[in-house]
Amino acid sequence: MRSSYPELIVLKMPLFRSNRFLALLLLAMLTTVAVMAGYPERFEFSEQLIPGENYHIEVQSDQMIGGKSSVRWIDESEKQAMECQFSTQVAHPYCLLQVYFASEPNIGKDLSIFQDMLIDIDYQGPGQELRLYFRNFGATYSKLEDFDSLKYSMVDIPIAELNQPIVVKMDEIKVANWWVLERHLPRPDRYVDIDNVIAMGIELKSSVDGTVERLRINQLTLRGTYISREQLYLYIIIGWAFILVSGVMVVLIERFRDKTTAIQKLTHETFELKQSSQLDQLTEVLNRRGVLNFFSRYQQQDKYSKIYSLLLFDVDHFKQINDQYGHSDGDRVLQQLAKKLKAMIRNQDGFGRWGGEEFILLCPGTNLEQALKVAEKIRLMISEHNFELEPSKQVTVSIGISINSLSTPIEVAIERADKNLYSAKANGRNRVHY
Ligand SMILES: Nc1nc2c(ncn2[C@@H]2O[C@H](COP(=O)(O)OP(=O)(O)OP(=O)(O)O)[C@@H](O)[C@H]2O)c(=O)[nH]1
């Protein structure tokens, strides 16, 4: 049943133990909502050209090139409405309403930062199309003081579409073919340039003499975005994917860590349990089971020592100590005695309480001479130790030794040592017999 313990912990565990991750999730949600709700204000920008007073706005006709078409403002002060009367004096009669951006003849306005134009125009007349045009100054193809050398890019708008405001994308703008052909430009100069626009405007054309056309521009606004909606959604999706993947990883790591910890705890507990089942509760040295376990391990694993000695020792007249000082003082004597012995034995020796006031010391690879030395040392140390009994009393031990070959069973070795212990007791106690 205990093996299901780690699973139990995993099931009881909350999805995220770290509140920081939940806080991050909440923050990400709020940020997403805020970003999406605030999109137009934060990510879009615009510039209204008409109506407006930032730039010079003018009307022109083909009289500039010797024609006779006439143009006039209908509203001189607002400069939004014009009237054109065409004359077929020249091959291509025209009238223009032009916004002039240039601060210097070669320094205009960068319109490439905008994505589109919002155009609201009222038109009266027989025309089918009007033209939106852009004149750009480029160092490689334009000459100062030569307006015709400004690149002519344009988009034609069907009049039929103008019954409501329309959006013209900057992508729709193309370079006029005739302008390219007239100049024999290299290919790189044949593409649209609107990064240095000197002027832009609306051009009306007619080949019918006496035609009158009226135009009113209610609004002409350039619009741009720092980041498009599509890009924004993409970034949000990437952000969320990142958060979710990290979330899954955090959960997996936490679970793995918990499982490992639970297994380690269980292993440790099992180890402790095993250890404690082999320890004597009172003295905390090996109990009988621990000693037997030590011996069997020694017999199985030790390849070098051919003999072992076994020392069995017993506190002399321990009953008297109990009777005179009480059972708990007797316990204390046993505890102190075990502690002293534990401190003096070698790492490879096995020491434990065999029962009552009897202790056992198993010394691998130890011959009689060495065993006698150890036993005598123990006997002397115990007899000289102050066990803090009140009134004071000398505590002694009697020790019986047996020297055995590696294959001798422990029961036999104990029996031999016990005989010698009995002999030590019978011969006056506080002595070592072998
Ligand atoms: N305080 C205490 N006494 C114990 C414990 N285990 C055994 N004893 C006592 O140890 C005493 C052993 O007495 P005996 O077997 O007569 O031996 P002894 O008095 O030591 O006399 P000899 O061994 O002949 O020197 C008994 O009174 C037991 O009750 C223990 O864990 N604590």
UniProtKB/TrEMBL annotation:
It comes from the Bacteria. It is an enzyme of class 2 (transferase). GO terms for molecular function: diguanylate cyclase activity. Residues 306-434 form the GGDEF domain. It catalyses: 2 GTP = 3',3'-c-di-GMP + 2 diphosphate. Keywords: Membrane, Transmembrane, Transmembrane helix. Its EC number is 2.7.7.65. Pfam families: GGDEF. InterPro entries: Diguanylate_Cyclase, GGDEF_dom, Nucleotide_cyclase, Rev_trsase/Diguanyl_cyclase. The chain crosses the membrane at residues 232-253. Its cofactor is Mg(2+). SMART domains: GGDEF (SM00267). The keyword Cell inner membrane does not apply. This is diguanylate cyclase.
